[in-house]
## 1
Amino acid sequence: MELVSLPTLRRVAVCGGTHGNELSGIYLVREWQKRKKREEGAGPVSVVMVMSNPRAVQQGLRYTETDLNRCFTQASLSAPVSDRTPYEMLRSRELNALLGPKGSPKAVDLLCDLHNSTANMGLCIISYSDCDWICLHICKHLQREMATIPVRYIHFDVPPNEAYSLESVGKHGFAMEIGPQPHGVVRADIYAAMQEGVQLMLDWIRLFNSGAKFEGGSVDVYTMVRNIDYPRDPHTRSITAAIHPELQDRDFCLLHPGDPLFLSFSGETLRYKGTEPLYPFFINEGAYYEKGIALSLARRRKVEIPPIHSERA
Amino acid sequence: MTSRNVSCFPEARKVAIFGGTHGNEMSGVMLVNMWKKNGAEIQRNGMVTKPFITNPRAVEKCTRYIDTDLNRAFTPENLSGPWDEGLPYEVQRAKEINQMFGPKGSPDAYDVIFDLHNTTSNMGSTLILESSTDHFNLQMVHYIKKSIAPASCAVLLNEHPHLKYSTSRSVAKHPIGLEVGPQPQGVLRSNIFESMRDILKHALDFIELFNTGVEFPPCAVDVFKVIERVDYPRDANGNITAMVHPHLQDCDWEPLNPGDPMFQTFDGRAVPYQGSSPVYPTFINEAAYYEKQQAFVITRREMLAATAIRKSI
């Protein structure tokens, strides 16, 4: 593939606390903000650390009225506000003004949004694009440099207008999702992984901005295909089964037709009835019970990425 | 020849299983809801076993509590004070539960109450006792441990004058806490659910056997006795400045020796344990305890002697 030139990444935002109980990003942003007073960020890139949902962080909740990370579609950002507009919807406009506006030339060049999951996902770069070379090269860099945790690239095939999460505000954006960690807990090993991931990302950006050329190659991309909900009681909608012990914690282990999915409370094994083997992820994410998602399924393919350098090179 | 020391207790006719004392600890919520629909599995001859959701509003919102922690609300002041519409929800609830299953300390109180909990700590299955001299309970936990072997079950004793607290189960003559982890809040793990279910099965078998007149010979029970609570290092604003150290994380019930790493600051420095002798930590990194100023609890191992027991004629 031919060498691609891309604009330098002058303004970068790292966001934590988009969900107020996902603690790694919250502590990382807090600590970074404390250190920034003593240490100057190196030259050509300005990094802003943002606590996205301070009210939810203060209360230790995912959100106070509505999930902030579903408020960033173009429709949602431009809908009229009233005195009954939920806090998170108002906050999404503040963030859009601070870091965007989404879709405009004023938006930050790169937005990295920090998350944790109760699922055993390792480190995942989650993006709406499978051809954003910046995001894919950052992923490749983390994969090469991180020894202690698997790094994978997840793609949600949603057009920019309909993209609903915070990272879609930046010109380039991705969520850095690390699990497993219970909500409301900070684990030292998970914190260290996120700290390393963010540091490696910033190192890569500085290298990129200084004119370095990054060789092309390929990245395995997991594209989300569908979600599967728990079996539920038809009247109460209460769940009637748990993720099967043979599936629990096996994120990214290929799921074949006939493999166990759920173990019902009455002892019955419920199996995957699809015809295509797919890769499960977000297996048993605590926040997704209310969204009707027991697990998500993805197709995997190799994406060729071109060599890239910044336009100033 | 001295007569053998046998403690006699009345038949245990009224037994309750509490779930949802914390609304986001899912095993108990699911088990109790399942048994409310079909309680055949928990019924035994000669006794009535009542499954009961103690904090339905918290369960509905999938949160630990609404106004205040129900499992700290059964204080003498709360239970005896006058009724008032303005009382916190959980205090009202404690009074109702005390009426239904107590009154605490009276002859009408339920014989046995099992209170089902989950923890984000790696405690495995743990039975929690509030008294070292309740020989009925000591015999029950001994029976349970023998029955589930080679699977294991720790016994935690909390009769510390300052650290013990007024639990929902304390309205019963024989209260037993059942704590199983690790499980994130708001998540249902199949293996954790089935472990809890199995322990209750053996507990109910014990009570049934006891009620038929079986005499249980004297036995010794290995317990971990709560000595002290250890908080996170915090700054002037009350924010934590260090995390549970990776070497201590997940090592519930394993000895912590003087000099062993205990915490890791956000900039990577280890903080060692500075006690004078080895101790056994547990409740390591429980999400709900950040706000209770507890990173973990320190215990000492003790052997408790239980007398023989049998039902009184």
Note: The radius of gyration of chain A is 20 Å.
## 2
Amino acid sequence: MEQAQSISSKLTLVFLVLTGVYAQAVFSEEYKVDPGHSSAQFSAGHLGFSLLIGRFNKVEGTFSIDAKKPDTGKAAITIDAASIDSNHEKRDKHLRSPDFLNAKQFPKITFESTEFKGNRKGGTLKGKMTLKGVTRPVSFTIKQIGEGKDPWGGYRNGYRATGKIKRSDFGMKFSLPKVRDELVLEINIEGVRKK
Amino acid sequence: MASALVISFVITLVLVTGFGFVARNKGLFTATPLNMLAISIGFSSAYFIVYPGFSFPPVEVGDYIFIVILLALAFALLSNHYSLTGKVALIGQIALVTVISLVLLFPLIIRQTLVSALVDITLTVSIWMIFWKAMERQVRDHQNVMLIIIFSAGNAVIVAVDGSLLFGVLLAVLAVSTGAWWLMQLWTQQPVNYQVVTGFLLIPVVSLVLVAHHYSEINIFAIVVLLLIPVIGFIEALLQKTHTQLSAWVQYCRLALLGSLPVLVALWLVWPDESLY
């Protein structure tokens, strides 16, 4: 009788562990960034008259969300510096040059999160951005755009992250203060949940 | 930017004048290093005003330009002191050009395969050496310096229009400090070893062009057209043989006009359809 009870309690323990692991797996979601539906935009002032909008066309990375522990959310994004597109080929070439991004020497712009406060719908994401070989802390305000099943059987989740940086903090001091120091960043990410 | 050009011009002018008094009656051996030092200080003072880098780490490719100037100066001083000629000078030139090319292109070649990196470096060193030798073998003295000034100024315009304003300005500063030295040289006629000065000037000029080309995607055809500037020197040498009666100033004007032709062609190749900013 005691032996049967012992086996029963062990089975219960195994069940609880397994369901716990399963629950953990269900609550923690890993997403891979869909480069075709993601971009990183920036806006910079033009002589005080208007805002120049540009974007980086190649964005990749991963992010994760834990429904039970939203604060453990993480993101790692890599941007191809040479993919800058300001709707002017010659200007893009200049922006890629050592005057600004020096994209040949520093081809990647990276962001690695260190802290997230918020929930599934949004919050504040802090992390370290490496641009032009210089790493600085950056903070983004995150807002969910939407999530759900896609027509191909996958599950997608999209966010918009907005933040500000000073280009001089990253060693881009050329033509200051004539060309504005502050840049407004907007990163639109669409992730496909990993199976 | 304009202030950097003025500063470079004035500092070089003042130093050449000052050093001229120091080197007076001391001959070519003393005057040559002092003249190169004047150009180096004239360029460097403007470089430190214009160049916004030096945020170590990381080391940016533009950070090396000052070191290149020091290397060029050291090599020129050695060439002058030991009167390096023939094979020794050639080996020294190749070694120096290879080291500078490796350092300047290091961030790019580490991402290449060994074979393509070797091809790139060999090609760069070969073009550089052909250019150097072409400049040494043609018309001497003032015309040679004029061609280097035209090459620097022409590249300054092309690089500024087609890629990097920063490296364009640095090339312009080098053209201005060399120009200031040359104007004083025309006036004072100090004895100077022009072959050593030519080699000294070519190192920073070609280094700047090399960096601008590799890191700022300058139109390759424009760069090739500008590399033809030494050919103008050979044409000038032929014209001098056929028109021997012309004064030096007319010859300088003719060389300036001929030298501006490749610059105009290169400018036509890179001119933007609309304003960048």
Note: Chain A touches chain B through 25 residues (CB under 8 Å).
